[in-house]
Each structure stands twice: as C-alpha cells, then as structure tokens.
Description:
The chain is α+β, with helices and mostly antiparallel strands. It starts with 10 loop residues before the first helix and ends with a helix. It has a five-stranded antiparallel beta sheet, with no helix packed on it. A hairpin with a 3-residue loop joins β15 and β16 (749-754). Helices cover 53% and strands 10% of the residues. α11 (242-254) packs antiparallel against α29 (768-801). It has 29 helices and 17 strands. The mean pLDDT is 93.
Amino acid sequence: MAEPERFRSWMAPALYALVTVILFREFVFGGAQLLGVDTQALSYFARKFYTDVVHSTGHFPLWDPLLYGGLPFVEGMHGDIFYPPSMALFFLNAASAFGWKLVLTVFLAGVFTCVWLRELGVPRAVAFFGGLVYLMGADLVSLVFPGGDGKMFVTSLAPLVFWLVERAFRRRGIADFAFLALGVGLTVFTSHMQLAYFNVWGISLYAIFRAVQIGRAEGAARGARLFGLFALAGVLGVGAAAVQFFPPLGYLREYSQRSAKTNQARSPELAYQYSTQFSLHPEEVASLVVPDFVGDNAPTETRAGNTYWGRNPFKLNSEYVGFLPLLLAPLAFLRRRRGAAWFFAGLGALSLLYGLGADTPLFHLFYRIPGVKLFRAPSLIIFLYALSVVTLGAFGLQRYLEWAAGDEAEQRSARRYLWIAAAVMFLLALLAGGGALTGGWRAIFGGYLTPAKLQALEADLPSIQLGFMVAAGLAIATAGIWEALARGGIGRTTAVALVALLAFLDLYRVDRPFIRGTELINATPDAQLLFTPPDGVRWLQQRRAAGEVFRALDVSPMVGVRTPPNLLAIHGIEQLAGHHGNEIGRWRDLIGGEGPEQNMIRSNFRLLDLTNTVYLLSPAPVQLPAGFEEAYRAPDGQVVYRRTSALPRAFLVGDARVVPDSLAVDTLLSPGFDFRTTATLSTPLPAGTQLRPDPKGEVRWTAPGVNEYTLEVTSDRPALLVVSENYHQAWHAEVDGRTAPVLRVDYTFRGVPVPAGRHRVRFFYHSPVLQATAYVSVALLLVLFAVGIGGFVLERRRVEAA
C-alpha cells in the first residue's frame, strides 16, 4: 500500500501532545492535581518521604519508620524510586511531579505504539491511528482515578519493549539486544512487578513466535540463536534492575503481610481465592465492546458514580480499548492473513482468558506457573490485550484502506463485513433500548445480583442504551467513510483522519470522567490535608521537633470523619498503622490489621502502651477511659490526647520468656502479662546472655535518624534493651563499637542485650543483598549502555562510510 499522502513523521508526536493536553487541560493550565485514590492513600506519601529524606539528610532512605512500626524502603516497595522520570521529584513538589509523570506517560504510550507499528511495516498514518488509540485507551487513562501510576508506566512501556524485541530480531546486532535488555530493566524499574511479569510473558511469547518464523525461513539454528540472545538480554535486563527486583522478592516471601495470603496462606483454597480477586467477569468482557455496560464508581459533577453492578466490590477504572480497533481488527483475517495477526489474536485471547480468573477452569493451569500465586487481580493483564487489539486494529485499518482501492472481490469482502457489523450493532442498540438485552443478560448471568447491584444496574441502564447507540453510530460512520473512500469521494489521508476522529471522540467520552473525577477528589477538604497539616498535626510536629520520640494514632475514621489514612506520616509523624499494603506482617498481626481499634479495645488500650503510641488525634472531643489526658485543643476543634502510661520507644527489661509465635500476640495483649518487665522470644536467648530482673537505668536518644540512630543506655545490671520498632535482618547493632546481636523480641520488636554500666548503642541498617544488587545494577547498566550506544555509533559510521 502506498504511503497516505501528506502525513509527515513529525505530525504523530505533535498530535499526540495536543491530545494529551486536551485530556489533562485542567492540570496543564489550571493548577488541578492528578492524585488518584491510591495516590492520596499511599503513593503521594511515599514520594514525599523519599524526597524529604534526601533533601534534609543528603542520604538515600533505606528504612521508612513512619508506618506500621517501620519497613524497608526499597525492599518494601515504595513505588518507582529508581524509574528515571521520578527524578522530577527532586525539581518539583511531589504533587506536581506526580501529575507531570502521568501526562508524560500517556503521551509516550502513543509515541511508542506508533514506533512499534512502523517497525511492523505499517504506514505512517495508520501507525498514527494505532498510537492515538493506545494513548487514549481507557485501560491506560482511566488508571489516573484509582491512582495506578505503576500500571500506567508498564502499559506505556509495553509497545516500546515489543518494538525492541522486533528490532533485535530484525537487525540482529549485539547493540540491539543490549537496548532490549535496557528496555526490560526499565520495565522492572517501574516497580510494578505484576505488570512487568506479564510483560515478560508477552515479549517471551513474541520472541518464540519470531524465532519460529525465522527458523522456518532461514534454518532452525538461526532462530534458536536469536532466541538465545533474547533470553540472555532478558536475564541481563532483570540483572540491570536487580536492586529493584531481588530485595523486594525476598522481602515479599519472608516479611510482607502479603505472604500470609499467598505462599504462607492457611490453605490452598484461600491462596487461590486471593489470587483470583478482581478478575474480569462476563459483564466486564461485554464492557470491552460497550464501555458503559458494567458502569463504574468514578463520580463527577454530572454523574454520581454509583452504576457499577459487576461482581467485584467496586470499579474505579475501565478496561475499554476502543470500539474502532475492535471493529477494524477482523479485516486483518479476511482473505489474506499475516502471521503477526494470528499471533496477536492468540495473545489477546490468552490475556482475556487469564483476566477472567476463576470464571474459567483454565486459571488452575495458569496458577501452576511460577510467580502467579504471588499476585492477585488477574484483570491487570489487560494491557497485553490492549496492545494486541490496537496492533490488529492497525492491520485492519491498513487493509481497510487497501481494499477501498482493491479489486472487486476485495471491495466486496470489505463492504460486506463493514455493513454487517454496522447492522449487528444497530440491532443490539435496538435491543438495549427496549431493555431486552439487559433482561436477557440478567436471566443468564445475573444470579449474583444483590439488591444493591440491581439498583446500580437500574442507574446504569440509560448509559448502557447510550453506549450501544454510540457503538452503532461508530460502526455506521466507519462503513460510510469506507464507501466514500472506495467511490473516490475522499482520499486516504482524509479517511484516516476521519476514522481517527471517531476513535478520539469515542475514547474521549470514556476517559474524561476518570480524569475529571481525579481532579475533583483533589479539591475536597480531606485531600487538602495532604498539603496543609491541621493544627493538631502541627502541634505533634512541634513535639517531634523538640526531640520527643513517639507514635500517634488518628482516630478520625473511628468517629466517622474521613481523613487520608497516612495523614500523620505525610507530615513526618510516626503512625501506629496507616496504609501501605506491603507492611511487615508481624506488626499487622500485633495491632490487629489495618485498623487497630479491635486489638486496641480488647487489650484495654495496652496495645498503645506497648507500641509507644503516646498521642491520639481526634477531630473533636471524645469520651476516653482513664489513662488519657488532653494535651492540646486546636482552634479548629481538633483535640490531641496523651496516653499517660505509654512506654517509651526504647526501654530495659530484666526477664525474657519463650513464647511460640502462635501465642505471642495474645500473650502480649493479655492483662496478666507485664511487658514492662518481661520480653517474649520465640527461641531462647543466645548462649552466654545474662539478664537480671528489675534493671534500673535510663535510655536516651542521642542521634535519631532514618537509616541509623544512637542510644545512650545506662543500667545497673545486665538487661535487654527493647526498641518497639520492627525487627528486620538488615538492622544491626553495636554496643560501644562492638557488634551485638539484634534479637526479635515481643513478636516483632528489636532487642539487644546490654551489660551493666553506661553504653553507647548504635543501630544501623545494612543489607548485603541490597548493596550487592545495587552494585550489579550499576555495573550492568553501564555495560549495556556502552554496548548499545557503542554499537549504534559504529553502525552509523559504517553506513556513512558506505
């Protein structure tokens, strides 16, 4: 097919930039923020903590002390800390940097897709269409609302990495495989391991497909060699991102609360149930064609966000890729078929089958693949389906244009398909308008519908009817554009422009509510607390600045007032709990989960004493039992209460009792156990360690810090120094400069034996695994860049010399 006239290479990125600005115009021009639901809950805190520590100390944070008794910063996964665009955090405030990263991500998704399609031989204008659809796909853009930035990064990078695979198999230079390794490493650096894992699935299957193709054409040895180089590039890519991959993997298996739901689950059934949460279901699959079909929970000024009636607990995003690529894709399979079309049809189907989770028995087979049981939400694989559909849609549009000028048989095939598809969508629109479609759906699939879900379905009915009308209109318009092209009324560039305009309008109407909804939740009073601390929090900041070491608990949710779950941590105050998702499981067990109120009450508030939770922050005066006193009352009504019996962060005990982990939490919280004088251990004290009851002494903080801190300890007899911060094997201790053992005490705390007298105890975080993987990452990145860039320069010189 001849290149559509007048479409230049610079036009695609220019138009992508324009479309991106139109989508995010309030952020770009109006000062709105793009902090989604999970971003407000966690991601904003993680990025702010990262930059605050670097700016204030000049050191990289290795430990996050602000949530759940502390957790490793890198191993515990605090987001895309090594992802190159995150460098913007050090030049902009965290909220602005976050928004610009998302805008850049959406723009680059279009550019990468266009480049990928061009590598496959697709003409410029058609590749522009594919990039536009992928850029605007609701499967990508709608993730702004739930705060799925890591998912967006991998989705945007997927076509880039596929392009690097294709480029390596075509050009076959060592430099090309070096760049492929860098692409794999970049995907891992996004820190979204689940989507990076799925992306490796996708490119591995594509590499097998290309190796077989080449093996048939040029010999099996050539195909095997290229696949071997691909596998080596993959290993080197993961190695280049080793610091982001291996330490978190070890933490996930041993420390994270998620391990209790996966590899350490109480039963295989519970582990399988966890892994299949947030699957696609039949109604979500229908929404891949008509996005309005299943509804969502994203409110704006013009809609309540109460229309989701599917089987998942809620719906904050859409998997819709667009109607136009789905409509055009079958054209790639009429009469003549290319091998890549069959591959992407298979990849798209495989992704859908996986995304359906427990809705099909096939997931039991997927579940046996190493790594699958570590993750939940099978629907997250949808980006591979999206890339497959967009690629097939581009192939279909290419044929749509070719056959408009083709022979009689080709025109007859295209005309028949397009008008039959339009007629089918028109019929479905009529059925939806009359209620027959949803009525039939309820009869076949609606056994799960509760009264609340039925109410949501009723609220969604007008949108469903509109959605089918829009789909029918798009199908009819697409067929009409083809007729005008086939009859010579318009040229190819005009036809592509009109089809692209239809795709823009279709996806714009789906994308905008999620973007607008994100902007609106950033304008709420509780969101403003992220940036401006209330008076009660300011008072706690003053106490911290004065040198007091304590934890605090925001009880606002317990009295029905909504505040960000990491409100205190965002402003530098250590919290008893919070929101993370990858916190150390033992602390979570101790406090009773994400909300500590149950264990707090059943222990008669002893939990607060044990964990150094000195202050409660309440939005208004509340009735509390004995043991609390009012410490501060703010002009805005907030009250800070002090727990008068709370233990200091570090204290001395003279006795230790061996208690199995299975009984430790109940023992510690029971009224009959005195944790002020006795520590619990799961194993006996190290040989030679002596303790004597009732030590008298003092513990004073002399050099607090994030990665290390120093205590001055005075005791009249051998004692055990207990620090109510999470134990982790990377924490080490020195007593007067000599190495001392760090024990896990009181189920999750740190303990260090100290002899009688005055001593300097230094705690410091040092992970040999983290350090080694950092060295490996730096070394491999340097080598891969040198090989890639060096090979590129040499190739350019050879071309110029020729």
